[in-house]
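Quick one, C-alpha cells below. Sequence please?
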C-alpha cells in the first residue's frame, strides 16, 4: 500500500493583513528573519511601530520568492531585494503592454 501524505494550508485573501507572528508562521521562518526582510526593504509593514505592524497578503508571496532564491540559488538578502525589484518592474512593463 502506498504511503499517503496529508498537506495542510492556509487560504489567504488578497486583501488580508497578517501580523508579524502570522507571517512568520505562514512562511515557516522565524520573526527575526522577517525583520531582516523589512530592514533590507523587501517587505514594507503597515503601521508605525513593530508591535502593531501588519503585512499585506502580497508580502507572503514575496517571502516565498526570497525563500526559493536563497534555497535554490544561494542568493543573499541584498540579491533577493534586487531580484524582487526586477520582477516588479517586469510585471509593471507587462501590465503596460496589455
Amino acid at each position: 500500500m502506498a504511503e499517503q501524505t496529508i498537506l495542510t494550508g492556509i487560504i489567504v485573501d488578497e486583501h488580508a493583513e497578517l501580523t508579524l507572528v502570522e507571517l512568520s508562521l505562514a512562511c515557516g521562518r522565524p520573526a527575526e528573519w522577517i525583520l531582516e526582510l523589512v530592514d533590507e526593504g523587501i517587505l514594507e509593514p503597515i503601521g508605525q511601530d513593530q508591535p502593531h505592524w501588519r503585512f499585506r497578503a502580497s508580502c507572503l508571496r514575496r517571502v516565498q520568492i526570497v525563500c526559493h532564491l536563497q534555497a535554490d540559488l544561494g542568493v543573499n538578502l541584498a540579491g533577493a531585494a534586487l531580484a524582487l525589484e526586477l520582477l516588479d518592474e517586469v510585471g509593471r512593463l507587462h501590465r503596460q503592454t496589455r
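Helices lie at 20-27, 31-39, 58-73, 77-97. The chain has a mean pLDDT of 91.
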